Amino acid sequence: MSMNILAWNIKVGQNKDGSYPLPKTENLDRIVDIIKDSKVSIACLQEVDAYTLRSGIKIHQASYIANKLRSITGKLWNYEYIVSRKMKPGYYGNAILSYYPMTTILKIPLPRINSKEDRSFLLTKVYVENLPMYIGTFHLGLQGDQSFQAKTIKNVLKDYKFFNKRIILGGDLNDKEGSNTYYIMLNQCFPMIDVGPLGICTFNCFHDNSNPKIDFFFIRGFANCNIKSSVLPIDISDHRPIRLSLQ
Questions:
Q1: Stated pTM of the model
Q2: What is the DSSP letter of 21?
Q3: What are the residue boundaries of the Endonuclease/exonuclease/phosphatase domain, all occurrences included (predicted)?
Q4: 187 neighbors 180 (Cβ within 8 angstroms)
């Protein structure tokens, strides 16, 4: 098995400063190129809009990216999407894209407590070389909601007995290495591994490269694989993508 997976908060296609490119699909096209050029076969994306005024009333961003990948790679890219928040009109959420066969297993809302936005967790089943694995993506909140939401994810995975499966979770923790949220993802209910890279900025790095890493891959069940990870020095949104390689 040899594959590359990407985790990336794409900030609804905005520029890193929060403005929008013209056309509004320009950064989506750049994201497609990064996925293709990085030889990625699965992408976990956060902050993905669908049919909103701000990002384009006719644009479902996950569908747009998947369709563009199909056209330029010749592979049957598909996507699964979860709504975190209903907009007026449209939706805001997370997505997983894959050119392997994929089905949705869990869609878990992560309601806000102290912060302003509900968040979500999406888990899919992906068949790679006819072997099943579980790929999840998350986007946690702010103002202390991260810890509660991380506990919810780990408790649900335990309840559905995913602790003995091959599982990869990639997403935006909105908290740093060594935080309570971080240790919940590692240790709550059953252990997972942070596959790094450690201590590398992923948020607002164009402004200050000493900023913390808040985007992560947590995995379980891949002890026999050669695992490498890297933060790609790309500042399309305010987050940098992480690429995970398994061989």
A1: 0.97
A2: -
A3: 7-239
A4: no
